[in-house]
Amino acid sequence: MLTNCNIVFSFENKGLFLRIKRNQFVMILKKVNSVQEALQGIEDGMTLMLGGFGLCGIPENSIAELVKKETKNLTCISNNAGVDTFGLGLLLQKKQIKKMISSYVGENAEFERQMLSGELEVELIPQGTLAERCRAAQAGIPAFFTPAGYGTEVAEGKEAREFNGKMHLMELAFNADFAIVKAWKGDTAGNLIFKGTARNFNPCMAGAAKITVAEVEELVEAGTLDPNQIHIPGIFVQRIFQGEQYEKRIEKRTVREKK
Asked: Is the Cα torsion angle 183, 75, 101, 96 positive or negative in sign?
């Protein structure tokens, strides 16, 4: 919406809110009021990127909402597919995922069953290649060459080229409709800070799709965060909301015996 007056201009698009006073830039606001509003526009058959590593730093609220929405035939790009009862495993249980593009999927029995039965399409990618295909999309780079996977099944159907005496495969940047990431803290302008090992696939997925949704544990006003601590600037984020009731499950707990 564009209001023509001498004092304030307003513009709304994809969850953005821009307010400009005469001869003065104020702020682009990315905050939305709920997970339902944040996921508006996600439809059957879309391709989604979902941040996280194992169960660390996954967008729990957004995944739960996708289950409620019963969105189906999804292609999901994620390092892993969660476990049977948590993370993307919840979408697999409801058979909402048509294809998984992942690096590691070893902790999900339902994933294994669907893959072996032919119910689920699976594309396994070396972890570094998965990360770089996200980062390339974020940077606007359509393709790149990597030595990972040359001479294996990963190379089937891909262009190979020699660089400095070593063979490389051409990999394409991802083309996703939505990237859904989880951060520890964010502000209303979309700037994000990740905490600890939750700073995994989330930073390289932010801005790597047509629309990026960020859910955060703590949402503060723009200008509150220390600029030196920000990991992802708000320009990569279109919608941000504050999540709630995070479980933060541990995928596999190993305890050393006391001596």
From this structure: positive
